Amino acid sequence: MTTDEITDLLKEAYVDELETVMNYLTNAIVLDGIHAEEVKESLEADIQEELDHAQILGERLKQLDESPPGSEGFEANQHSLQPPEDTTDVQAVIEGVLEAEDDAIETYRSLHEAASEANDPVTEDVAVTILADEEAHHTEFRGFHKEFPQN
Ligand SMILES: [Fe+2]
Ligand SMILES: [Fe+2]
After folding, report:
1. What is the average pLDDT score of the chain?
2. Which of 17, 58, 114, 133 has the maximum number of C-beta atoms within 10 A of its C-beta?
3. If you measure from the C-alpha of residue 2 to the centroid of ligand 2, how many angstroms do you get, rounded to a whole number?
4. Could you give the count of Cα atoms lying within 13 Å of 36 in the half-sphere of its Cβ?
5. Residue 130: partners with Cβ closer than 8 Å, 6 or more residues away
6. Helix 121-147 × helix 4-30 angle, to 10°
7. Would you say the pTM of this structure is higher than 0.85?
8. Whether pLDDT at 149 is above 80
């Protein structure tokens, strides 16, 4: 059975995914320099996955007879993922991505817990599927964080 907590978390996660798409896209475009290439490629690959996540969440909301929000329901949160003033500051973007992925992991853990408590196995499955992707993204950028030179 679904609860308001579940639909609220699904809507919040949907909006967060779309904000992530916007910031990954922007940073994949703006970064410069020899250290940027691999990070840009990784961001480009993740953009499609984050968009897929939004679609999965939106479809689940539809199944629960709810609508995913439009842009008027949007409030920006990812301050650390804004394009850096110094476009060679790859480290700032890596740290922003790690923070965004940490937030996503926390949201999907909460969604999993709420769905489990409400005996809603389909939403639980959605949460676990997306959580696995976010953990993989986090691991990849943790690797970049170790490797890239500190400014
Ligand atoms: Fe995502
Ligand atoms: Fe992610």
Report:
1. 95
2. 17
3. 25
4. 16
5. 13, 53, 56, 57, 104, 108
6. 30
7. yes
8. no
